[in-house]
Design brief:
This protein has 360 residues and is of the alpha/beta class. It is 41% helix and 20% strand. The protein is built from twelve helices and ten strands. It has helices spanning 26-36, 53-66, 96-106, 116-119, 139-142, 146-161, 173-185, 215-246, 254-264, 270-276, 282-297, 350-356, and strands at 2-8, 14-23, 42-47, 71-76, 110-112, 165-169, 191-195, 303-311, 325-335, 338-348. Strands 1-2-5-4-3-6-7 form a seven-stranded mixed sheet, sandwiched between helices. A three-stranded antiparallel sheet has the order 8-9-10, covered by helices on one side. Helix 8 runs antiparallel to helix 11 (282-297) and helix 8 runs parallel beside helix 12 (350-356). The longest helix is centred in the middle third of the chain and has 32 residues, at 215-246.
Length: 360
């Protein structure tokens, strides 16, 4: 089925890139890449279908990087290897006609939507990618084998599409970190590009699974993003207080600054000063998020927390309370029968480390 990739001018009129097709076989994929691909200008966006604005943002980012003459392939494949027992493989939404519209409107050159037999012609592969220690944490602990199956199909699709760039959403932060690690450890000749999470107007991270939520379940599910935003705001408030302390003249270190600021402020601020004195704020970040999630656990319907973790983005291990630097606050929970994940990047301790020196 031949279609045309469409982008929009400032006036809203479609702009046609090269002809775009729905590709069903590896042979068709290779033919299209040979005809339209160009060295340095090939990009892939891997999806499991049920495309939404989050996926569209990935396609637009790819199109922007490779330009009008570049080749952007979107893959649509519901990978059975990454679904465990009791998960939603059978009910995972399959909406290919709508997916084509989203992909081509966002600037895709072609959509590769193979069958399971096309991807795994000999049945489930006996040789697979192992995710390693990072793949056993958080999502890996909750969904054993999930990341092995994910990396196996990503590796296979990278070989089949042979891109210069591959675009993935930061909403699946652990997945993105593992793909980057695999590409580095196994010398894949591709740049892995992370694209920021897209959210709905109420803050809920866009996900193909959001469509499963009833109105009441959606209200409860907002606690995931609410917890992340509360933690971010607590951290910002702490850092603002520390910045004020650092601005006091004659101050030599953060303990003295916070003490002097506490003396100068009203008694009502004493608790905030004490919190700021605790260090970089890791525990305060966790506590702020837990408060929101605990409230949601008493809602109707309730939120059932799987995990809340403040982790190092390099290996997804939990950070220490005195951690300074980048971190990811990640959460996973069930509302009704639907499991959702979300995360937010944070920078801990940067203000005080910069103002007083990293050793103080």
């Amino acid at each position: 089925m031949s279609l045309f990739a469409r982008d929009r001018t400032a006036s809203g009129r479609p702009v046609r890139h090269q002809p775009a097709e729905l590709l069903r076989t590896v042979e068709d994929l290779h033919d299209a890449a040979a005809h339209f691909g160009a060295p340095g200008g090939n990009a892939v966006v891997m999806t499991m279908g049920a495309l939404h604005e989050g996926h569209a943002s990935l396609v637009r980012a790819a199109r922007e990087r490779v330009g009008d003459k570049g080749f952007v392939i979107v893959t649509v494949f519901v990978n059975p290897l990454q679904f465990g027992a009791g998960e939603d493989l059978d009910r995972y939404p399959r909406t290919l006609d709508a997916d084509l519209e989203v992909a081509f409107d966002a600037g895709a050159s072609a959509v590769f939507a193979p069958s399971v037999d096309e991807v795994y012609p000999g049945g489930e592969p006996q040789v697979r990618i192992a995710a390693g220690p990072m793949g056993e944490l958080l999502e890996g602990a909750s969904r054993p084998g999930h990341f092995d199956g994910m990396l196996t199909v990503v590796a296979k699709l990278l070989h089949l599409t042979a891109p210069d760039l591959a675009f993935f959403g930061q909403k699946d932060a652990q997945q993105l970190a593992l793909i980057r690690r695999m590409a580095r450890d196994l010398n894949f000749p591709v740049e892995i590009v992370g694209v920021p999470t897209v959210r709905e107007t109420d803050g809920l991270a866009l996900s193909s699974r959001n469509r499963y939520l009833s109105a009441d379940e959606r209200r409860t599910a907002l606690a995931l993003s609410g917890a992340l935003f509360a933690a971010r705001d607590r951290l910002a408030a702490q850092e603002a207080l520390r910045a004020r302390a650092a601005a006091l003249p004659g101050t030599q270190n953060r303990a003295e600054a916070l003490s002097r600021l506490g003396e100068a402020r009203a008694a009502a601020d004493a608790h905030a000063v004490a919190q700021a004195a605790e260090g970089c704020g890791a525990e305060a970040v966790r506590a702020a998020a837990r408060t929101v999630l605990d409230d949601a656990s008493r809602a109707e319907p309730p939120l059932v927390l799987d995990y809340l973790a403040l982790v190092d983005p390099a290996d997804f291990t939990e950070v220490a309370d005195d951690h300074d630097g980048e971190a990811i606050l990640a959460v996973a929970a069930r509302v009704g029968a639907t499991r959702l994940i979300d995360n937010i990047p944070l920078l801990l301790g940067a203000t005080m480390s910069t103002m007083f020196g990293a050793t103080q």
